[in-house]
């Protein structure tokens, strides 16, 4: 699965076609009070599940919000890259989604690997030949961090069609960790979405819609302008909105204005409607499976 045959300059990425909203009513005002409720009476998915750490969740997510700026990536970093651009990044992330699916890894592993890629590229210029090496090494790193039984190093070498050696991956692993000061505990939109989906009573299909939107956003460089928590709020909102479910959540204060949430939600809706025509198809194909309720085949009139 080498990138060399897929990184074509004529890819039509970042499809911002505002005309898609011409036949739709404006998104109505959000009746949201907060997705950060600290009340014990807040709705939680599977409240008996000890892994959800309900008693500690408010403090955990308060800390994640405080740490969020450390994981935020500048949307300007591509200006510092002489050999790669937004299109090549999109091709890489599309490939990462495919590799992640092949290994059957956890969702957080995918989101963390993309965050590591962006954090590294923000600090170091790379050549086109190095780009996939950065990607596969970041996926290797995040799988060791998140998975109970991560794939072996030889599996990551093989998935690149042996474009790189074991020694190159290990060397790049050291380079990435040193560049990031060994800090890969980075808040991602997936962690926030897990929380928001639970306390807003988002059903299984709605969670698939929200995850689909978040993974579409991973591919698009321009979506870096939104904080991970804001993308998670918008994806949760759209998970209710697209399925025409009640999204009046009995919660206090999101920390975001209605305007900020709707702006992000509109960009996600553009990605959703443009996905069937997008030249990169890994996310769309992934969410066409029954496991994800085939949400990529949903159409909005």
From TrEMBL:
Single GO biological process annotation from the record: mitotic cell cycle phase transition
Transmembrane domains' residue ranges: none
Keywords: Cell cycle, Cell division, Cyclin
Pfam families linked to this entry: Cyclin_C, Cyclin_N
Residue ranges of domain Cyclin-like in the record: 94-178, 191-270
Gene3D superfamilies: Cyclin-like (1.10.472.10)
Alphabetized SUPFAM superfamilies for the sequence: Cyclin-like (SSF47954)
Positions of the Cyclin C-terminal domain: 187-301
A molecular function GO annotation: cyclin-dependent protein serine/threonine kinase regulator activity
Family assignment from sequence similarity: Belongs to the cyclin family.
Protein name stated in the entry: Cyclin N-terminal domain-containing protein
High-level lineage: Eukaryota, Sar, Alveolata, Ciliophora, Postciliodesmatophora
């Amino acid at each position: 699965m080498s990138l060399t045959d897929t990184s074509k300059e004529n890819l039509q990425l970042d499809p911002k076609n505002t005309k898609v909203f011409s036949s739709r009513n404006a998104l109505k005002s959000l009746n949201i009070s907060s997705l950060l409720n600290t009340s014990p009476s807040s709705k939680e998915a599977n409240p008996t599940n000890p892994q959800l750490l309900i008693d500690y969740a408010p403090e955990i997510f308060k800390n994640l919000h405080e740490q969020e700026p450390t994981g935020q990536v500048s949307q300007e970093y591509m200006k510092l890259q002489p050999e790669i651009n937004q299109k090549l990044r999109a091709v890489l992330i599309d490939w990462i989604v495919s590799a992640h699916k092949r290994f059957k890894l956890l969702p957080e592993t995918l989101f963390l690997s993309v965050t590591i890629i962006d954090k590294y590229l923000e600090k170091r210029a790379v050549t086109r030949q190095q780009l996939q090496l950065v990607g596969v090494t970041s996926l290797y790193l995040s799988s060791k961090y998140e998975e109970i039984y991560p794939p072996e190093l030889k599996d990551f070498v093989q998935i690149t069609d042996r474009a790189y050696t074991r020694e190159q991956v290990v060397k790049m692993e050291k380079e990435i960790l040193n560049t990031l000061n060994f800090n890969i505990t980075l808040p991602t939109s997936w962690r926030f979405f897990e929380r928001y989906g639970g306390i807003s009573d988002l059903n299984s299909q709605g969670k698939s819609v929200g995850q689909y939107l978040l993974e579409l956003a991973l591919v698009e460089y321009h979506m870096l302008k939104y904080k991970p928590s804001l993308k998670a709020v918008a994806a949760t909102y759209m998970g209710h909105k697209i399925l025409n479910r009640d999204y009046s959540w009995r919660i206090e204060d999101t920390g975001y204005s209605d305007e900020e949430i709707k702006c992000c939600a509109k960009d996600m809706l553009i990605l959703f409607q443009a996905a069937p025509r997008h030249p990169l198809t890994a996310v769309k194909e992934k969410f066409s499976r029954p496991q994800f309720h085939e949400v990529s085949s949903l159409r909005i009139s």
